[in-house]
Design a protein that fits this description.
By secondary structure, this protein is of the alpha+beta class. The chain is built from 5 helices and 4 strands; from the N terminus they run H-E-E-H-H-E-E-H-H. Helix 2 crosses helix 3, helix 3 crosses helix 5 and helix 4 packs across helix 5.
């Protein structure tokens, strides 16, 4: 019998949490996605992956109620999903709050703001 490999096992996937983000952040993600010819979801996945390659401190405080656009629940590599869970647990936040802070911080770093 031929040994068969399941490519999904080589790159196991999970689901990023759904989260609310600031409308301006969501619009900026859409612009970045369009500029680079990728989907909105792929842009979010790349932002999260970049954060874990070049991490910055997240706040132990919640960002507040400036969240108006809802990100869809999306598939992402399991190691990213699990890493968000670990951060959420260590900060005492929900996974959605951690995702929101990663997105906000990454977009601000892109513009040279911290």
């Amino acid at each position: 019998m031929l040994p068969l490999r399941n490519p999904r096992l080589d790159n196991p996937m999970g689901r990023l949490p759904t989260s609310f983000v600031n409308t301006g952040d969501a619009d900026e993600i859409r612009r970045l996605a369009e500029k680079h010819g990728i989907s909105f979801n792929e842009a979010v996945r790349q932002i999260v992956a970049l954060y874990f390659r070049q991490p910055f401190p997240l706040s132990s405080k919640r960002m507040g109620d400036s969240k108006t656009d809802r990100l869809p629940e999306m598939v992402a590599p399991r190691h990213l999903v699990e890493s968000i869970g670990v951060l959420a647990s260590s900060l005492g936040h929900t996974r959605g709050e951690v995702l929101r802070q990663i997105i906000r911080g990454s977009l601000r770093k892109r513009h040279g703001r911290h």
